[in-house]
Design a protein that fits this description.
Structural class: alpha/beta
Largest sheet: 9 strands, mixed
Order of helices and strands: EHEEHEHHEHHEHHHEHEEEE
Number of helices: 10
Shape: globular
Radius of gyration: 18 Å
Strand content: 25-35%
Helix content: 25-40%
Oligomer: single chain
């Protein structure tokens, strides 16, 4: 088993190099950013590059359907169709609004428990949850716990489950919007994460300058910069830029 899951596309962009050669195997990662900060594009780039280098990926999205996911990937020039058809990538739409898609009994079943019981999705090398905060917020058990300020109990149980998965060399990456969750919910996963990337952006003149602040990157290959500037362009996808926010 490799020490890193390479992110590939070395001749196209510098993402893999900037992140030290890839994501550490057996790690738990969190990608944190506000709405519109680019979390989805970054995870889509990771997923495509991982498949291009021979790894398998499960990609769970709370926003995209399979059709819109393919359209979005193609708009970034990430031709993911072949990876989906060859089952290198498993795409799952987590429909958190279960009102019209489940029976009353199913709607009351914890979403988190349903995810943990879905064995097939955990077979991949890397499992990505894009919009994990939405899954938490629509879980009936989490909602009831949150009313009493005990979110950390739910998170500790989740972390224990995640660590069982990562102990087999698999890597899990969660994207979250910090505006959606309380500090009590975020603190446990921030504390135990092996990789913690925080996204930010700033308007400079007519430009929007985006950056990843590397808060934590345990098990890295080559050195990872503290701050990584990036852009998102139609037809090109994610690209690393040398300038950073002052």
């Amino acid at each position: 088993m490799p020490d890193l899951y390479e992110l590939g596309l070395d001749t196209r962009d510098r993402v893999n190099a900037q992140l030290g050669g890839g994501l550490p195997t057996g790690s738990l990662g969190i990608l944190e950013g506000e709405h519109g900060s680019g979390k989805s594009v970054i995870t889509q780039r990771f997923a495509y590059g991982l498949c291009e280098t021979g790894n398998t990926v499960t990609y769970v999205s709370t926003e995209e359907t399979a059709a819109s996911f393919i359209d979005q990937m193609q708009s970034l020039d990430y031709d993911v169709v072949e990876h989906l058809t060859r089952e290198n990538m498993l795409f799952l739409h987590a429909d958190v609004d279960t009102t019209n898609t489940f029976s009353d009994v199913d709607a009351k079943r914890p979403l988190l428990q349903r995810l943990m019981d879905a064995e097939t999705m955990w077979n991949s090398d890397v499992i990505i949850f894009d919009g994990f905060d939405s899954i938490l917020l629509h879980d009936p058990h989490y909602e009831s716990i949150r009313e009493h300020g005990d979110e950390d109990d739910v998170m500790q149980n989740l972390i224990s489950f995640f660590r069982t998965i990562t102990s087999h060399g698999k890597t899990i990456l969660l994207t979250v919007n910090p505006d959606s969750l309380t500090d009590a919910a975020l603190r446990p996963v921030r504390d135990v994460s092996d990789v913690y990337l925080k996204l930010s952006s700033e308007e400079v003149g007519n430009d929007i300058r985006r950056q990843m602040v590397v808060r934590k990157f345990a098990g890295m290959g080559n050195q990872v910069d503290d701050t990584i500037g990036y852009e998102v362009q139609t037809g090109r996808g994610l690209t690393i830029v040398t300038r950073t926010v002052a």
